[in-house]
Amino acid sequence: MSADRFDVVIVGGGPGGYIGAIRAAQLGFKTACIEKSDTLGGTCVNVGCIPSKALLYSTELFAMAEHKFSKHGIKLSGVELDLPTMMKRKESVVRQNTNGVSFLFKKNKIEWIKGEASFSGPKELKVKGADGERTVTADHIVIATGSEPVQLPPLPFDGKHVISSTEALALEKVPEHLVVVGGGVIGLELGSVWKRLGAKVTVIEFMPDILATMDKDVGKEMKKILSKQGFDFKLGAKVTGSKVKGKKVTVEFEDKDGNKDSVECDVVLAAVGRRPYTAGLGLDKVGVETDKAGRIKIDNRFRTNVEGVYAIGDVVEGPMLAHKAEEEGVVLAELLAGQAGHVNHETIPGIVYTWPEVGAVGISEQQAKERGLNVKIGKVPFMANGRARASDDVDGFVKVIADAKTDRVLGVHIVGPQASELISECVTVMEFAGSSEDIGRIVHGHPTLSETVKEAALAVDKRTLNF
Ligand code: FAD
Fold first, then answer.
1. 246: Cβ–Cβ under 8 A, 6 or more apart, which residues?
2. Which of 67, 342, 345, 446 does the annotation list as catalytic?
3. Is the pLDDT of residue 122 over 90?
4. How many angstroms separate the alpha carbon of residue 295 from the centre of ligand 1?
5. What is the C-alpha separation between 230 and 362, in angstroms, rounded?
6. Rounded CA gap, 118 and 132, in Å?
7. pLDDT by residue (tens digit) across 394-433?
């Protein structure tokens, strides 16, 4: 069987792979993308970013109708949940997005090779698909195979009682009691979905804070706010075992002093992180090196130790985020075309789509201390913002961290309404190496939530106007 030849072949049709393929095709490379799932878009589009945001939006509307409308003088009676319709809408949103990626492939003349790829030589892949086996060769092979949920030994997934995020996006009924193991982004987002629909939600987290990798003020504030929403937190608690009996699961855990405790529930969502996915790729056949965490080792041009083989996205080092994967795909394609480029890891925003949301970029106060940096900090609550009061969304704050000498913005941490959108301004300023004074002197529309970003920037120099 003769092999099909391409300039660039990307394994994996997630945000890293499909965006990388589009950019490579735009730059004139004959490009193919190998994807084993029935749809393109990867984790993000099929079982990650998109369906979770669809459900977060629907459930926020439900929560508003149930708890907030009356305060605005809107009387509703008989608010009822129609979960099958909510799930159908989520599925149709996913379909629009996966179809969108297929359309973009056609538009950019990228071949989608359907099937599972494995290396048969340094520049050669075998693809096993429904139509049989095909051999593909390329000058440049890009691994963009993403990640999978981590399974804790005391909590083996059974897909029904002990589940990962994938099943938590598609439960057929609202659990009476959902235990979320892991107080990180995915755990809090999916915990919020089911909490708003009426589940009792208990979060068990090993670290002393939720959102432990973010600025400490963020975790503290979010714990306070989510507790008010009814979340129950068991922090500093290590899960030691689980027992499924009938329709119930008992999760056993112990605190830092070794005191044992347990909680009974009907569903446990284990959201303790994700790990790189390279199963079946045959990396050992060509000698592609991975690190202890299973990530493919790359240099600063995404090159693995094997010539002509590259890796991007969740399968390599860095935050496991769709926009990071996408940017790496773009930059790699441009490097292959002889252009310059790099991805600035200091300005990758991290967002939590709870309500209120979290948006963060750059270093935290703790990281500034660890790095021995001398910083000034400005922090202003949304309570001081007219627009936030007008829309009754006053929880949270904006915290700006700037270099004490140069005033350059080093980090911004937002808990509040529309934090996902507000953080973009801060990313832009940081990309342009801007100062807190720059933000403070930019005219912001009034009344807008973004005025709190401006006020927090002014607070760095202790010159707030509205706080
Ligand atoms: P993936 O999207 O995982 O894609 C890899 C693809 O490779 C998959 O489609 C897989 O089928 C395919 N593949 C693997 N091996 C092979 C093979 N041998 N042959 C052929 N195909 C193969 N990130 C955000 O930025 N924002 C969010 O709001 C967000 N929300 C999330 C919510 C949830 C519940 C989850 C689970 C994740 C979320 N993420 C979010 C993370 C985001 O989904 C990932 O960072 C992103 O999908 C990584 O992109 P990727 O291209 O590296 O890999």
1. none
2. 446
3. no
4. 14
5. 31
6. 14
7. 999 999 999 999 999 999 999 999 999 999 999 999 999 9
